[in-house]
Structure formats: structure tokens, C-alpha cells
Prior knowledge:
Elements: E1 7-13, H1 18-31, E2 38-42, E3 45-52, E4 55-62, E5 67-72, H2 76-83, E6 88-91, E7 93-94, E8 97-98, H3 103-113, E9 119-121, E10 129-132, E11 141-148, E12 153-160, E13 163-170, E14 174-176
Parallel strand pairs: 3-9
Antiparallel strand pairs: 1-5, 1-6, 2-5, 3-4, 7-8, 10-11, 10-14, 11-12, 12-13
Amino acid sequence: MTENDKKWYVVHTYSGHEERVKKNLGERIQTLDLSEEIGRVEVPTEEEVEVKNGQRRSIRRKILPGYVIVQMLMNDRNWNIVRNTPGVTGFVGTGGKPTPLQPHEVDRIITQMEAEAPRVKVGFKKGQSVRVIDGPFIDFIGMVDEVNTEKGKVKVLLSLFGRETPVELDFLQVEKL
């Protein structure tokens, strides 16, 4: 049996139980010696950088909350083992029959999970009022004109000498009002 014989299926879980389901299913696979038939069990997550209270934090965010993806050979026994794992509510599919993911869907999910550069979660939108909390323009209040997530910068229109002046600042230098 090769990896190509196994297909990826989406398993619905109780909300917040994704990691527990992954652990329980992994233990059942080992105990029942099914590693040949049931391959990878993944909780689709991605690395995200969040800027909160002037601090950068790296967090793992679930791409598909409430779901786990399982690479397996579908048969009645394997279906029952996965379906009866604690925390699992069922497979995603039509008419009670599990539907395998298409290869391009799996590739997109895996690529998103393995991305080297973490996504930056931005709390700023164009037209939003912000206060500068660091740098030479500290305590100035302005309006967001542009957000550049790749560079981690935001362009803010500040009123300097009676004129609106665009100033590029780091995400850490501003806070929402």
C-alpha cells in the first residue's frame, strides 16, 4: 500500500477539541497497529504574529477551527475507528458518505501550514484613527492611510504645522483609539 492509495478526509470535531482528537486518534492508530492504513492526522494551523499592547506575539491560529484532516484508506473498519474516537462528531461529506479532499485542496492547506514567514495579524484599517505611542511623533493622533503587512508598517496622516503629512511607522509605534 502506498501513500497514493490513501486519501485525505475532513473530520468534524467538538469545538476546541482538535488537538485532543489528534492525540486520541494517534494513540488508537498505534494501539490497533493501523499506521499502514491511517497515515497523517493534522490540525491545520498557521503561524501568526499578533501585535497587541505594543508587543509582538507569535501564535498558532487554526486554519479550520473544529476540523482535523486525516490521511487514510477508507473502509468500514477505519471509518468506525475514526468516527468513534472521543471528540469526533463525524466526517464531512454528502449523504452520510465521507468525501475525500481534492489534491489541490490538500496542497493548499499543507502549504499554508508549512509557510516559513508567519502571517502578520493587523488590527489597522484605512481611515481608522490611531495614536502614536513611540518615536518622535509620540502622542500625535492621526488617520491610517495605508497598511503594509509585508513590511510591518503603517502610513499615518498626521497634522504637522497645520498640514496633513504622511508618516510611515512600525505597527508597534501606533495603537488604535
